[in-house]
Amino acid sequence: MSEFxxxxxxxxxxxxxxxxxxxxxxxxIYTDAKGDYRAVFWADLAPSPYLVSWLEKNPAxxxxxxxxxxxxxxxxxxxxxxxxxxxxxxxxxxxxAINLCKGRYKDTKVNYVVENLxxxxxxxxxxxxxxxxxxxxxVLPGKYRAQARDAMISLLxxxxxxxxxxxxRKKGEQLDDIPLPLDKxxxxxxxxxxxxxxSFVSYDDTQIPSVPHFFAVYEK
Length: 220
Ligand SMILES: C[S@@+](CC[C@H](N)C(=O)[O-])C[C@H]1O[C@@H](n2cnc3c(N)ncnc32)[C@H](O)[C@@H]1O
Fold this sequence. Notes:
This protein is α/β, with parallel strands linked by helices. The chain contains 7 helices and 7 strands; from the N terminus they run αααβαβαββαβαββ.
């Protein structure tokens, strides 16, 4: 793929998913941008306002709190966490995404690394006060979604918080969508895994037409 074409994009993702290669295509989205981060079609190039609003109430202050950003893409949310005092590790399976982050934020305090959520370094387990997930579960198919949720939870310290930001859908609808938004039952599975819901927002974003989303915070 060179120029973004939603029909070709969905067909490309579907083909990988049908061949059970759900992670094989992510890097192409970033390499197709040819070094220009503005050409990455899914990036907002700004932190989530819901994350920023949460950070305003929950800064790290002078405590050394550790945060990890899953599938960090171009790093806007990781930089927001860092600017509120968190010691941030941000990872992505795409080498080129991480190259673009390092190019964008030359003086960053964020530790940007290439890693796979499903094979992260053992010392990361239960090491984080905050886990931030934005739009990664929704780009995975089938069994990988619950595996991703479980891997994210396993990164959390006791009493740590996980923030989940994603597209949403009504149960039984949009079943063939790519990305496949989460329905309420799927996001509530964080509670079934033993976490406590601290806040939950369902909202429509500012796109035209607007896209429904969830933003939820859970505590371990
Ligand atoms: C839809 S993008 C969202 C990027 C970013 N969080 C944002 O909101 O702009 C999903 C990101 O997750 C990354 N990703 C997917 N599966 C991953 C995995 N198993 N481990 C690490 N990163 C992954 C992709 O490379 C991609 O950058």
